[in-house]
Amino acid sequence: MHDVRLGPLSARVSHWPLRINLPSLVLLHGAGFTAGFWQPQWVLQNRLNLICLNLPGRCGADNAEPHVQDYLQLIEAALQEIPAYFVMGHSLGGGLALGHCLAAAHQVQGLIMVNSGARLKVAPAVTAMLQGATQNPLGQMLSAGSTLPVQDIAHISAAAGSVQNALADFAVCNEIDFMPQLPSLKLPVLIVGCDNDPLTPFKYSQFMADNISTSRLLLVEGGGHLLPWARPEQLNQAVLDFIFPA
Fold it and tell me: What is this structure's pTM?
């Protein structure tokens, strides 16, 4: 594991320099978190170059205005030296991955959307909860009611960014709306959704699948919004099957 700087953003990568004999997978975490969110996916490093980007304003990454185009510009700048890669995003990271693919599809070999959607609106009550908070509560909040082990909940909470990161990310969520552009996406897409995700309901995944002709849809039962932690083996295998089709 290496912490590196990729242009304006920082990243946690599995191999540095990247191994030329392995496909590369860029991972974009969700709102209010850092690259540490992807810990359950590190087992994939034997098959892939993993490039877990930190979104703007955390872990040494440059800051950005809380607008979707500002985030996308920094992501594109961070990845311009990587000639080809797959990209996977969770929640906000999925929306940003989708926007990145629409703008830079020539670099991307495939897209994986996890617990995400083409349009992401945040309930005002969630933003209000963060106003005036001194610590980011998202790890505990998203884990509430789950069956995750205590140590996993602690790891998720440790991967949270600052309250300011979360508020900026939620502002970006509210700007994301790539629904009209979905039919223009022609690269391979894997869409992974859960039947009990209250934040990005499965209908979001179904809508994307219905409007992207090159997509494949996977429903995971009981995964909730923290699918990468709740069902890591199932998600990791789906990633490998997508990148290494039989």
Answer: 0.96
